[in-house]
Amino acid sequence: xxxxxxxxxxxxxxxxxxxxxxxxxxxxxxxxxxxxxxxxxxxxxxxxxxxxxxxxxxxxxxxxxxxxxxxxxxxxxxxxxxxxxxxxxxxxxxxxxxxxxxxxxxxxxxxxxxxxxxxxxxxxxxxxxxxxxxxxxxxxxxxxxxxxxxxxxxxxxxxxxxxxxxxxxxxxxxxxxxxxxxxxxxxxxxxxxxxxxxxxxxxxxxxxxxxxxxxxxxxxxxxxxxxxx
Length: 229
Known about the structure:
alpha/beta, Rossmann fold, Arc Repressor Mutant, subunit A, four-stranded antiparallel β-sheet, 42% helix
């Protein structure tokens, strides 16, 4: 049976040894990194199932690492470990793509339970059909639920928000003609509906404003170009 792979980034040798050995005793496979600058490459090479990131690291902090990972892997669970206890630090952790945030000192039982819970949630999302969960940068689009989710924050979408976003995601990196969008969503390309389309495009741009990798570009005289990355 394949073991769950954990990328653990921590520069405190004593704590790192305890956590690594404890996880391995529970049948986890652990790749440990001590330098924040090496974390991204370790992530690419190791392809973990979950990341545990200390916040205070040499050369690159955990929040920055979390943002980099989240930009390319929107659904992987990320847990931040920190000695900081300010509310602003907690909020920064979630803004940086974290799914959970544990304050030091912590018990191994607490860490393991949180890891198991996150892995269970991720498995549930992964079991969804492609139409149920569509990654878009650091967001997840759920067309059947009319939802756009980022870091567990849910943006409710209207029917036309959803239909427009479905068209954009299905035609990623292609020129999408304005008239085609109007006919599919409104049934005609009247001036009034064309102005409505402008409003809905602006709404989607506002929804994605926290992730600059998601772009809806207006092609003058043609329509739109949707890209991620």
